[in-house]
Amino acid sequence: MIKTLKTTVPVALIALGLTGAAHAEIKLGASVSATGPAAFLGDPEAKTLEMLVEELNAKGGINGEEVELVLYDDGGDANKARTFATRLIEDDEVQAIIGGTTTGTSMSILSVAEDAEVPFISLAGAIDIIQPVKPFTFKTPHTDRMACQKIFEDMQKRSITKIGMISGTDGFGASMQAQCKDVVAEYDIEIVADETYDPKDADMTAQLTKIKNAAGIQAVLNPGFGQGPSIVTRNYKQLGIDLPLYQSHGVASDGFIELAGKDAAEGVRLPGTALLVADLLADDDAQKPVVAAYKKAFEDRYEMPVSTFGGYAHDGFALMVNAITAAGSNEPEAIRDALESVAGLAGTTGIYTMSAEDHLGLDLSAFRMLEVRNGAWSIVE
């Protein structure tokens, strides 16, 4: 039976364990942003982890041992994330951690996890999380650099050579902006207008007007996440900019379409995961069984659409379970070694094959190029 415990601290702590048992043999920690500005990312992550632990324990756990999940809500605050990571390791004595909804919270958690030599799987996008490779840090989402490459591949196919870029100044937006600038020349594409906005800004018309008036622009790219890209999309429509608009995988969800408005979002392109187009996958697609099972379980339980971000948590949990099972041990170093040996594990985000040199295990083929058509995601051929 699952028990939900509440603390007196301002954020929620949910401990999932076995009734009547003082401690589970396998303790998994998590710190996600279930509330706050990144709640649209962290809430489905928290729900996913709770659901998967309950399902796993109902089936007998890992190698016959129940899993206890200690889950904290850091509200998107990097300092709280660091505090919770310390608590998870020193007080809760977890053997591994999943979480870090945002780049900022992930960087805080990994600093603690690396010092303690506890394996950590991040759910955030920035490449800095895993490059250079850190001994105990892994992640499930594609990197921002990969997103740039996938977008530029699509632009190149369409003979787009001059673009404007409008980027959020948050951790993810700034990181992706830098990564796009670093690789853009490889695709013979020139950035002829480069604007930014604060994540709290309520209108980006001024920046978009400058981009609209720049000579020769053929498309616009918006690295960012949260509400900013939705505002950019609405302003883009209001200004009547008749050029392709590309967003990042940081807004790959149905929520983005709803927030931007179906009319404004129509035609927007971005690199996303198989999960967003589950019903459109071919029957022989290696990810289809995993994607379909997760989508059904989540939507049946929570009566809300599944999201890419919950999928990141699904994959992080699947990787941890696979590693602990393969290692036959709950020792942190053994789990780390097993994570580095993962090969061909199908998740909702892609098919993972990791190594000591690669703590992500995905390539560009894991991305699907998607476009909003008639108010829903479709696969770009």
Describe this structure in words.
With 381 residues, the chain is an alpha/beta fold. It folds into 2 domains: 13-142 and 289-365, Rossmann fold; 144-278 and 367-379, Response regulator (Rossmann fold), CATH 3.40.50.2300. Helices cover 39% and strands 18% of the residues. The chain has helices at residues 39-58, 78-90, 103-116, 144-157, 171-183, 205-212, 228-238, 254-260, 262-265, 288-302, 308-327, 332-339, and strands at 13-16, 26-32, 67-73, 96-99, 120-122, 137-139, 162-168, 190-197, 219-222, 245-247, 269-272, 345-346, 351-352, 368-373, 376-379. Strands 1-3-2-4-5-6 form a 6-stranded mixed β-sheet, with helices on both faces. Strand 7 (162-168), helix 5 (171-183) and strand 8 form a beta-alpha-beta unit. Helix 1 packs parallel to helix 11 (308-327). It is globular, with a radius of gyration of 20 Å.
Percent range for helical residues?
Answer: 25-40%
Instruction: Give the helix/strand class.
Output: alpha/beta
Give the CATH architecture of the largest domain: 3-Layer(aba) Sandwich
Could you report the average pLDDT, rounded to the nearest whole number?
92
Question: How far is the first residue's CA from the last residue's CA?
Answer: 47 Å
CATH class of the largest domain: Alpha Beta
In terms of per-residue confidence, which ranges show pLDDT below 50 for 5 or more consecutive residues? 1-24
Number of alpha- plus pi-helical segments: 12
**Main β-sheet, spatial strand arrangement:** 1-3-2-4-5-6
Query: CATH topology of the largest domain, anyone?
Result: Rossmann fold
Number of self-contained structural domains: 2
What value does the Rg take, in angstroms?
A: 20 Å
